[in-house]
Design a protein that fits this description.
Elements: H1 2-12, E1 16-19, E2 25-28, H2 31-42, H3 48-74, E3 87-88, E4 100-101, E5 106-107, E6 165-167, E7 170-176, E8 200-205, E9 209-214, E10 223-226, E11 229-232, H4 234-250, E12 257-263, E13 270-281, E14 288-289, E15 296-303, E16 310-315, E17 326-327
Parallel strand pairs: 3-8, 4-13, 5-11, 7-15, 14-17
Antiparallel strand pairs: 1-2, 6-7, 8-9, 10-16, 11-13, 12-13, 15-16
This protein binds S-adenosylmethionine.
S-adenosylmethionine binds near residues 256, 286, 345 and 347.
Protein name: Histone-lysine N-methyltransferase SUVR3-like
Keywords: Chromosome, Metal-binding, Methyltransferase, Nucleus, S-adenosyl-L-methionine, Transferase, Zinc
Subcellular location: Chromosome; Nucleus
């Protein structure tokens, strides 16, 4: 009976327990183990025709699985972007990295949902409509589309919009038109809202894991992508970081939790934004750190209609095809107290500190 079979399995192989968080324990039995155990119990009862049918099905499933793997390695962006972004690996057998794709910032969600990732020809049509409203993250536009803030601009001059402003003297903070403005999607002050338009690829490196590379010449100032992921409270970010630190100590694991601190003009306060692209994110989750600042500049972009700014990457100089894209994750200061959790930096720049910046450093 099913019960006695299940009990037998429990007796023979105590399931591995892995603690992911305080609240939930997850029991994991490797799928192939389970499958082989079931097969061992059921297959001896089959007649030759039934056995042949089972064997044919497995061959067919194996072929379909291989083609899904190949397809996944061809586009890390899963058709969510205007272009395909392939994985390239000549280092080990990993064909692609698995994560849930979001082109925009989204509120934290738990647990991460599964996401369809097959070939374009079998893509269910209900997946085609990516909500443009999502681009603005947490919105200040109400349900009826009524604007609660925004500029009055309705049409901008050729290649120039008078609403494009940088915070006084700070090129790293800027404003874009958004869902709260009167202008439309063709406004020239919406550069980062049109998605990725430069050729990119994700390349495997022995030391750093996956890395984002240019797959074409990218001119200085061109928009690359934003850093999309789950927006977390600081408490949740700290909890997740400690889980990620533990996972890293027992297995090869790369986290992508970025903390952005924006010092407000008063000088007395600081806005902290935690974006976690580890489980749900976009292509920016593959950008590695470089101690020399790398070749990307980061801009905190506010769009009218949006509550929080978005972190966007632009080419800091002309970037050639086959160059890795990188930026500085922050400053490094290693002392006796924070020595334990530190990660080695392999950026290879002449001014490398040898340590990857993190909250403790
Ligand atoms: C945002 S992810 C970048 C993508 C990551 N390499 C991967 O394989 O998914 C950040 C993680 O990449 C690795 N990483 C980033 N920059 C690195 C560097 N300069 N040297 C070594 N590892 C680096 C670290 O594991 C870090 O936690």
């Amino acid at each position: 009976t099913t019960t006695s079979f299940y009990e037998k399995m429990q007796r023979e192989a105590p399931p591995e327990k892995r603690r992911l968080g305080e609240a939930s324990d997850v029991i994991i039995i490797p799928a192939t183990d389970l499958f082989l155990r079931c097969a061992d119990l059921i297959l001896p009862w089959l007649n030759p025709q039934e056995l042949a049918a089972v064997s044919q099905t497995c061959k067919a499933l194996s072929l379909v699985s291989k083609s899904i793997t190949t397809h996944r390695s061809l586009d890390a962006a899963r058709s969510f972007e205007n272009i395909t972004i392939p994985f390239r690996n000549s280092v080990d057998s990993q064909r692609y990295a698995y994560f849930v794709y979001t082109p925009f910032q989204i509120p934290a969600s738990s647990p991460p949902s599964r996401q369809w990732w097959g070939s374009e020809s079998t893509r269910p049509s209900y997946l085609d409509s990516v909500s443009e409203r999502g681009r603005f993250g947490v919105s200040l536009v109400d349900e009826s589309g009524e604007r609660m803030c925004g500029c009055e601009c309705e049409q901008c001059e050729e290649g120039y919009c008078k609403c494009l402003t940088f915070a006084a003297g700070m090129e790293e903070i800027a404003n874009e038109c958004g869902s709260g403005c009167g202008c439309g999607s063709d406004c020239s002050n919406r550069v980062t809202q049109k998605g990725i338009s430069v050729g990119l690829k994700v390349v495997r490196d022995e030391k750093k894991g996956w890395c984002l590379y240019a797959d074409q010449l990218i001119k200085q100032g061109q928009f690359i992508c934003e850093y999309a992921g789950e927006l977390l409270t600081t408490d949740e970010a700290r909890k997740r970081q400690s889980i990620y630190d533990k996972l890293r100590s027992t297995q090869s694991f790369a986290s992508a939790l970025l903390v952005v601190r924006e010092h407000l003009p008063s000088g007395n306060a600081c806005l902290r934004i935690n974006i976690d692209a580890t489980r749900i994110g976009n292509i920016a989750r593959f950008i590695n750190h470089s101690c020399d600042g790398g070749n990307l500049s980061t801009v905190l972009l506010r769009s009218s209609g949006a509550l929080l700014p978005r972190l966007c990457f632009f080419a800091a100089r002309d970037i050639f095809a086959e160059e890795e894209l990188s930026f500085s994750y922050g400053d490094v200061c290693v002392n006796g107290e924070n020595r334990e959790n530190k990660l080695n930096c392999c950026c290879d720049s002449s001014c490398c500190f040898g340590t990857l910046p993190c909250e403790n450093t």
